[in-house]
Amino acid sequence: MVLGLLSLPNELIAQISDQLETCKEFRKTCKRINLIVSHRLLSHIVIDINKRRISLSISQLEALAGRLTRAAEHIHTVDIRDVAPNYYPIIRSYTLLQDGLTIRRIEQQNSDVDMDWAEKKIRELLPVALSTLVGAQTVVWAINDRDPAWASSIISKFLATLPLLRTLHLISPWIDEYKFYETRISNLTKLTVRGCLDISVSEIIGSSPDLIHLDVEYVSHHGSVGSTSMFHELLGRVPHDNPLKLHHLRIHHCHVRLDHKTIPHLRMLQSLDLNIPNTLMGSDLSSSPLAEVWGVIRREALPVKAIITPINNAVLDHLAGITGIQKLDLIRASCDWAASTGTPIAESQVLAHKFFTQVLPLHRQTLVSLNISPGFGIHWCLGPRNLDSIIECTHLVELSVVMDFTSWDGVQERTSDNVVEEVLHMAAQLPNLTWLEFSKSKVSVRHPQRWSPRIKVEAIFKSITSFGPVNLDIHPLLVKHQGKEFQPCLGSDGTVRYVPRPPSRRFPRLR
Asked: Distance between CA 439 and CA 477 in Å, rounded?
């Protein structure tokens, strides 16, 4: 008896559909597959209303408002971009001239639709169309200054009426011009905010006792940074007798103060992504706000297992005093502090030596993800001084390192083939590694004040695809360099080599 596709359970068919580039053709196979795949294919809707596509926008709203389609039954994610009927996007085309690349702006001809009628029609249809999306669990709202006030009011009321809404992304530098507190948004478990922060965001947080994921990045069109107690104010409306149980916290470009009012919300914190504005970072890093925050975290023994942070001595002291870290990203600060300190090379060398000799060995049995890209020192590059420490982390699944393009003795430049071979042979010694990313150091080992030798990105890509044969038992399943991903593939000659990987689809898109 031959078993076909339809003999598989629905769960396996759904997983097969996830691996396809598009489900549109697969959905047409038969009625059963259509029922299985439809809710995945139609689970995401984009509302993007502007003058250039006004007719299409009205048709979309009419279909939803008139219930002419059953797509609303499957929609779980709503992505709201422009809601501006009078806004006309500028289409850019690129023309290559002899003197370089220039940008020529081309405006398409205006639509023949009467815009007064169109705006009135959209104003009438939008609330009815949104009211059909009652199953939405995730909403991404990119607020623009060109959106009219009536559109903001309609969307705010829509958010407040969603019974299943648990994840909300608010993205805009103009967020302080909209009054979310006019309609109560509550019961969120995940909140992301990109933009100016005001009292309305703290209202949302205070009305969501089950909030476990908070992601805040302050962006101001005035170029300023939030008040000195920004994080403190965000939690100011949470009842004192019922603190939040945050599991993930991301704070970028906001001032942070940890005290008896904010610490209770962090008692169950598992993941922390912290990047304090560098306007508060002086040359004395031991007294910087970042150092103060990490000092409090260490003293309070918060159970953080995943850390993303710019590097300083306080972070290393915290990591040296605990064990069990599973994810560690040492990233570049908002502004590279090493470039502004008096002795950046010496400071960087001391911190790098402390990390690889005293800190990293403490977490080699638990670390599954490691990203070392601080961007401020050649001593953090992969080399003989730290290679053994990384290889000892045998449980690593994901690894991101910086490579220097001079030889490890700093005497001569290396070719792209040498670099690729070196990093992949290193990866082969990590038995659980499936994802490897390596980038180029910005400075030279031999001359720290100079830029690293310029090896073309295309040459490195060619070296990755020519490396081999790839042993799938020891080499990573995904290699990434300069934003381009490579995966093993069986070639016509019968050997496995790395080939460029097609871009993956990721929803919802945050911008």
From this structure: 18
Residue 486's alpha-carbon distances to 426, 434, 498, in angstroms, are 17, 12, 6
pLDDT at position 215: 93
| Tokens at 300, concatenated | 């309070």
Instruction: Specify whether the backbone of 223 is left (phi greater than 0), alpha (psi in -120 to 50) or beta.
Output: left
CB of 130 closer than 8 Å to CB of 158? yes
DSSP 247-294: SEEEEESS----STTTGGGGTT--EEEEE--GGG--S-GGGSHHHHHH
Distance CA 141, CA 180 (A): 12
Residues 217, 199: Cα–Cα separation, whole Å = 15
Element (H, E) at 149: helix 149-160
348: three-class secondary structure by DSSP: helix
pLDDT given at position 4: 77
CA distance 30 to 166: 34
Residue 447 CA to residue 460 CA, distance in Å, equals 22
Q: CA dist 408 to 68, 385, 386, 461, Å?
A: 67, 9, 11, 22
Quote the tokens at residue 345: 């090379």
Strand 77-83 to strand 435-440: parallel, antiparallel, or no bridges (unpaired)? Answer: unpaired
Token pair 């496995």 is found at: 496
423, amino acid identity: V
Q: For 422-453, how does the pLDDT look when each residue is reduced to its tens digit (9 = 90+)?
A: 888 888 899 999 999 988 766 554 444 444 44
Per DSSP, helices labelled H in 437-479 are 457-466
Q: How many CB atoms lie within 10 A of CB 478?
A: 16
User: How far is residue 226's CA from residue 255's CA, in Å, rounded to a whole number?
Assistant: 7
* Residues 328-383: tens digit of each pLDDT: 998 865 444 444 333 356 777 888 889 999 999 999 999 999 998 766 567 788 87
SS3 352: helix
What is the CB neighbour count within 10 angstroms for residue 270? 16
The DSSP symbol for 502 reads: P
List pLDDT tens digits, range 277-327: 654 443 344 335 677 888 888 889 899 999 998 888 888 889 998 889 999
Question: What residues in the chain have per-residue pLDDT under 70?
Answer: 1-3, 21-22, 39-40, 87-113, 173-183, 196-199, 219-229, 277-289, 332-345, 374-377, 405-415, 441-456, 503-511
Q: What letter does residue 357 receive in the DSSP assignment?
A: I
Annotate 162-205 with three-state secondary structure: CCCCCEEEEECCCHHHCCHHHCCCCCCCEEEEEECCCHHHHHHH
> For the chain, what is the radius of gyration of the CA atoms?
26
Query: 438: part of which helix (H) or strand (E)?
Result: strand 435-440
User: Rounded to whole angstroms, how far apart are CA atoms 429 and 284?
Assistant: 39
